[in-house]
Design brief:
176 residues; alpha+beta; two-stranded antiparallel sheet; 33% helix
């Protein structure tokens, strides 16, 4: 995501498709995981491990707002971000965030883009919503860590940027 100017347009790359099996109330649901082959995980955790409850999908409570408890996984990160966004008047929905997270990083909070023009200029896109550091700093929301890999900080800053540029993360349907 650029700090200024036009939204970036990704190079045409092949896409790897996988299915993650998610159990909800005794029913199993197969969800497609779409991951750009050029995104690289900065740690040994994988996208599939996040969706399948692996090491990045811990069930311990994440730091939370007073009175709220969030799981330390994609669902909890989105819900915590939505609570922070509501306090700061930043629009967005769970579905809009989830759709964009899955397109940008397949749910991997350590995803990093090492191939586009931002990366070539030394500012790779990072995290769940693939934010470059200048944009992250410009749209950082108080009360979240100043760490672009932190899932809640990344989601909240990206949604703040999307609200400023497009009206809401819900209006973003491609690379932004």
């Amino acid at each position: 995501m650029p700090a200024h100017g036009k939204p970036r347009r990704p190079k045409q790359r092949s896409i790897t498709r996988r299915l993650a099996l998610v159990c909800v109330g005794g029913a199993a649901l197969a969800l497609p995981l779409i991951g750009a082959t050029a995104s690289v995980a900065a740690t040994s955790g994988t996208t599939a491990s996040v969706a399948a409850g692996g090491p990045l999908a811990r069930t311990a409570a994440a730091p939370s707002l007073p009175g709220n408890t969030y799981t330390d996984n994609l669902d909890g990160w989105i819900r915590e971000s939505l609570d922070i966004m509501e306090r700061h008047g930043i629009p967005g929905s769970y579905d809009g965030i989830l759709r964009n997270v899955m397109r940008e990083s397949s749910g991997n909070p350590m995803a990093i883009n090492t191939w586009d023009s931002n990366a070539a200029a030394g500012t790779p896109s990072k995290g769940l919503l693939q934010v470059i550091d200048p944009t992250f700093r410009a749209y950082h929301v108080p009360g979240t860590p100043l760490d672009s890999y932190h899932p809640v900080a990344n989601i909240t800053a990206a949604c703040n940027y999307a609200a400023d540029r497009y009206g809401s993360i819900d209006n973003v349907d491609s690379a932004y």
